[in-house]
Specification:
- The chain is of the alpha+beta class and 215 residues long.
- The chain has a single domain, classed as Jelly Rolls.
- Helix content is 46%, strand content 20%.
- It is built from 8 helices and 8 strands.
Length: 215
């Protein structure tokens, strides 16, 4: 039976929006000032529940929204020629889900999926709203650069892992992404670290036999 959508109360909406403000202030390292007022105007930030398996983006759908992930996780991927998911990025709670260039420049999306990996709570904003915010608040540009930098750092960690031997990737994955591996299916792990399920099983057996490192 399909789950009925949960209804947010006015108090919950207020709390969720404040979570966005708190996250951005922590990222900036100081109060947002007038930007906070702009973000809290009616209709700018839109909280909602997203079920596991629901999509924020599919091919031929424009990336018109950015999302603060209050709770849950999401993945960015394409479908490879073998029909498997090739996962480029994973977001977890207290992060911003956005394809920045497509979002800002209204570029068409011809291949990417953004799918919820868990039942999630998100707060969304459209690029239409962000246009006026960018025009009036230089702080928004500073925050965007910080968000992009954080994403780049994690993507570099993943690419560095993908340059190692396939048999070693699972161990590196567990060490570098401890917040992810227990929340992902075998298929998702394989899609993220670029191995097949046979190699994943062998890597897990190898890891189980390896004694823990001594301090």
């Amino acid at each position: 039976m399909k789950k009925l959508p949960l209804k947010l109360t006015e108090e919950m909406i207020k709390i969720w929006k404040q979570c966005v403000i708190d996250y951005l202030q922590g990222l900036l390292g100081r109060p947002l000032g007038p930007l906070e007022t702009a973000l809290l105007l009616p209709g700018v930030l839109k909280p909602s529940y997203k079920d596991k398996g629901s999509f924020l983006l599919i091919p031929y759908m424009n990336a018109t929204e950015a999302h603060y992930l209050k709770k849950g996780s999401a993945k960015l991927y394409v479908i490879a020629e073998n029909g498997k998911q090739k996962i480029f990025y994973i977001w977890k709670e207290n992060e911003i889900i956005v394809l920045h260039k497509s979002f800002r420049e209204r570029l068409p999306n011809d291949r990417y999926y953004i799918e919820m990996m868990e039942d999630s709570e998100v707060v969304s904003i459209t690029n239409f709203c962000m246009d006026s915010i960018y025009a009036e608040h230089i702080t928004a540009h500073d925050l965007t650069q910080k968000i992009v930098n954080l994403k780049t750092e994690r993507r570099i960690d993943q690419l560095d892992m993908l340059l190692t031997e396939k048999s070693d990737r699972y161990t590196i994955f567990v060490e570098r992404f401890p917040d992810f591996y227990l929340r992902m299916s075998n298929e998702e792990i394989c899609g993220f670290i670029g191995i097949n399920e046979t190699t994943l099983k062998e890597s897990r057996r190898k890891q189980a036999k390896t004694p823990p490192k001594k301090d």
